Amino acid sequence: MVVLSASLWLRSRLTDRFWRVQEVLKHARHFRGRKNRCYKLAVRSVQRAFVKSTKARREKKRFLRALWITRIEAASLEHGLKYPAFISNLLKSQVELNRKMIADLAIYEPKTFKSLAALAQRRRQEGFLAALGDGKEPAGIFSRIVHHY
Fold first, then answer.
1. Which DSSP string do the residues of 25-52 spell out, in sequence order?
2. CA dihedral 124, 130, 135, 141 (to 10 degrees)
3. How far is 27 from 24, CA to CA, in rounded Å?
4. DSSP-H helix ranges across the chain
5. Interior CA angle at 61 toward 65 and 28, to 5°?
6. How far is residue 117 CA from its own chain's centroid?
7. Nearest to 56 by CA among 64, 67, 44, 68
8. CA 136: distance to chain centroid?
9. Reported pTM
């Protein structure tokens, strides 16, 4: 038998159950009380911690998206556009930046964000003008379209 180190030799002499217990206790080391020493308590706590960490990863995605939307909304209001109008007009202008990138631009590159806001504003004006047509309604029809200049 070839033994490369003392720890490998020791590991080969002990049972698999010992190593399973050690794996669980390794994850429970930072817990308080008997949960970090007693296997029976540690198993429950580690299982619960893994479930919570899985849920937290999903919640983190939701939380960050809400944060990005809040940042974009605050920055777009500075330029006179509400968030839904800003995003929809960017999409109509074929700007394919995600919300994370737009939020980063709003914080770290305000001039770039200002140009995006101007692009969205221009697209919005074009949409209003296209809805008006030539600006003359047919006789007997009253339009509710408001000019935003």
1. HHHTTTS-GGGGT-HHHHHHHHHHHHHH
2. -100
3. 5
4. 6-13, 16-27, 39-78, 83-92, 99-108, 110-132
5. 150
6. 22
7. 64
8. 46
9. 0.69
